[in-house]
């Protein structure tokens, strides 16, 4: 090996270790803003669906921002936010309806300017990616659920965690927050 290639190899190894040893935090977004963006993504999607029957439930999940080679370090003042809307069980029991909804969701996301990928080997899930390829925004698991993530870790906002009203007919008894983050004042 030449000195140049050894230096490049050492530089790449150092970069890899550094990338694992510091958290990637979107400092332009808070947990409250992330949830609002996720809710807007779902609202924009279902607004374009022709005969959408609604959702069965919603779960808002707040997690610690973990990083490091084994994700064993916690980034203080940051969290991950994931939103999941479950679909009615009847949809899962009707493969034709679940696939029709998948085709419609795919068309909506493409019309909204997202790159859409479909897992063909597994459950047929779809995911929408920002046009710049930076973050995955949404997933649709046919007949099961929508999941949305604003991507990576975000800052924990000062003040209360503002939860928008649930979409698609979700009732209060089917609307949950799972808090596994440093944010206080929320029920698990």
Notes on the protein architecture:
This protein is of the alpha+beta class. The protein has one domain. It is built from 4 helices and 9 strands; from the N terminus they run αβαββααββββββ. Strands 1, 2, 3, 4, 5, 6, 7, 8 and 9 form a 9-stranded mixed sheet that branches. A hairpin with a 3-residue loop joins strand 6 (136-141) and strand 7 (145-149). The longest helix is centred in the N-terminal third of the chain and has 19 residues, at 3-21. Keywords: Signal. It comes from Glycomyces paridis. Residues 1-21 form the signal peptide.
Strand and helix map with partners:
Layout: H1 3-21, E1 25-30, H2 31-47, E2 57-67, E3 73-86, H3 89-92, H4 95-111, E4 115-118, E5 126-129, E6 136-141, E7 145-149, E8 153-155, E9 175-180
Parallel strand pairs: 1-8, 2-9
Antiparallel strand pairs: 2-3, 3-7, 3-8, 4-5, 5-6, 6-7
Short summary:
This protein has 188 residues and is of the alpha+beta class.
The total strand number stands at 9
Oligomeric state of the chains? single chain
Taking the sheet with the most strands, its summary is: 9 strands, mixed
Structural class, by secondary structure, is: alpha+beta
What coarse outline follows from CA principal-axis ratios?
globular
Mean pLDDT: 83
Instruction: Give the low-pLDDT segments.
Output: 1-19
Strand content: 25-35%
* Number of domains as seen in the coordinates: 1
Q: Into which percent range does the helicity of residues fall? A: 25-40%
Gyration radius over CA: 19 Å
Helix-strand pattern, N to C?
Answer: HEHEEHHEEEEEE
The helix count comes to: 4
**End-to-end gap:** 55 Å
Keywords: Signal
Organism: Glycomyces paridis
Signal peptide: 1-21
Protein name: DUF4853 domain-containing protein
């Amino acid at each position: 090996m030449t000195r140049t290639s050894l230096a490049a190899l050492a530089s790449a190894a150092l970069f890899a270790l550094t990338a694992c040893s510091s958290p990637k935090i979107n400092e332009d977004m808070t947990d409250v803003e992330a949830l609002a963006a996720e809710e807007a993504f779902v609202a924009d999607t279902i607004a374009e669906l022709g005969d959408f029957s609604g959702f069965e439930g919603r779960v808002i999940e707040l997690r610690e921002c973990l990083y490091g080679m084994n994700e064993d370090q916690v980034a203080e003042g940051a969290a991950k936010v994931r939103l999941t809307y479950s679909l009615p069980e009847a949809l899962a029991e009707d493969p034709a309806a679940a696939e029709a909804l998948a085709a419609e969701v795919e068309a909506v996301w493409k019309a909204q300017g997202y790159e859409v990928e479909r897992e063909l080997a597994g459950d047929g899930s779809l995911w929408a990616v920002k046009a710049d390829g930076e973050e995955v925004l949404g997933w649709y698991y046919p007949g099961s659920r929508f999941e949305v993530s604003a991507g990576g870790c975000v800052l924990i906002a000062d003040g209360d965690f503002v939860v928008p009203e649930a979409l698609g007919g979700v009732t209060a008894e089917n609307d949950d927050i799972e808090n596994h983050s440093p944010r206080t004042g929320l029920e698990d």
